[in-house]
């Protein structure tokens, strides 16, 4: 197993529902650690750039509108197999299909307002982490 870093976002609905602390607590209890964190209100351009892989999807404009509707908490999460383990803690994209005890099952509103983002693999993580954080903003806890 390897120490990995992944990008996670508590989306505007999660901030609105006051579950920032609850979500971070779930990561920490799973022995995953916050290596960087900030609260931002994304511009349209920033949200479009982040989700550019979905630019041709029918839900793209609505997703960008949602992600710019309020502040988000963006975080770098670090730990053993952090990429897949954050995805497990999140649950399925559609909260009605998410397993009990997952973040989306417990807090998400619908398939769009689904509370949390996590990089879906190493390639995504290597694009998404530096999209929001410079090297100097991250703790070097694995070194
Ligand atoms: P994320 O990338 O946010 O971690 P994910 O990898 O589970 O979520 P993706 O397929 O990458 O899901 O979709 C990105 C985001 O777009 C979803 O989290 C959700 O907010 C929104 N989305 C996905 N599918 C739909 C849909 N069918 N209708 C509306 N919004 C959707
Ligand atoms: Mg995704």
Concise structural overview:
38% of the residues lie in helices and 20% in strands. With 143 residues, it is of the alpha+beta class. Strands 2-3-1-4 form a four-stranded antiparallel β-sheet.
Question: SSE layout and pairings?
Answer:
Layout: E1 3-10, H1 12-16, H2 20-29, E2 33-40, H3 44-50, H4 60-67, E3 72-80, H5 82-90, H6 103-107, E4 116-118, H7 122-132
Antiparallel strand pairs: 1-3, 1-4, 2-3
Could you walk me through the main structural features you see in this protein, from its secondary elements to its overall organization?
By secondary structure, the protein is an alpha+beta fold. Helix content is 38%, strand content 20%. It has seven helices and four strands, in the order βααβααβααβα. The chain has helices at 12-16, 20-29, 44-50, 60-67, 82-90, 103-107, 122-132, and strands at 3-10, 33-40, 72-80, 116-118. It has a four-stranded antiparallel sheet.
Strand percentage lies at 15-25%
Q: What is the chain-wise order of helices and strands?
A: EHHEHHEHHEH
From the spread of the alpha carbons, the general shape counts as globular
Low-confidence spans: none
**Reading side by side through the largest sheet, how are the strands ordered?**
2-3-1-4
- Tell me the quaternary state: single chain
Q: What is the CA-CA span between the terminal residues?
A: 16 Å
Bound molecules: adenosine-5'-triphosphate, magnesium ion
Characterize the main sheet.
Answer: 4 strands, antiparallel
Strand elements, count = 4
Instruction: Give the overall pLDDT as a whole number.
Output: 96
Relative helix content: 25-40%
Structural class by SSE content:
alpha+beta
Q: How many helical elements? A: 7
Q: What radius of gyration results from the CA coordinates?
A: 14 Å
């Amino acid at each position: 197993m390897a120490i990995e870093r992944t990008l996670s976002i508590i989306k505007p609905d999660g901030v609105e529902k006051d579950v920032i602390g609850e979500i971070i607590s779930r990561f920490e209890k799973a022995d995953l650690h916050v290596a960087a964190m900030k609260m931002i209100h994304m511009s349209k351009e920033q949200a479009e750039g982040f989700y550019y892989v979905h630019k041709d999807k029918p839900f793209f404009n609505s997703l960008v509108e949602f992600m710019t509707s309020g502040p988000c908490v963006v975080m770098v999460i670090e730990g053993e197999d952090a990429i897949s383990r954050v995805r497990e803690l999140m649950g399925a994209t559609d909260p009605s299909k998410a397993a009990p005890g997952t973040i989306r099952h417990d807090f998400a509103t619908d398939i769009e307002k689904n509370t949390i983002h996590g990089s879906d693999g190493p390639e995504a993580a290597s694009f998404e982490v530096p999209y929001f954080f410079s090297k100097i903003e991250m703790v070097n806890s694995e070194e």
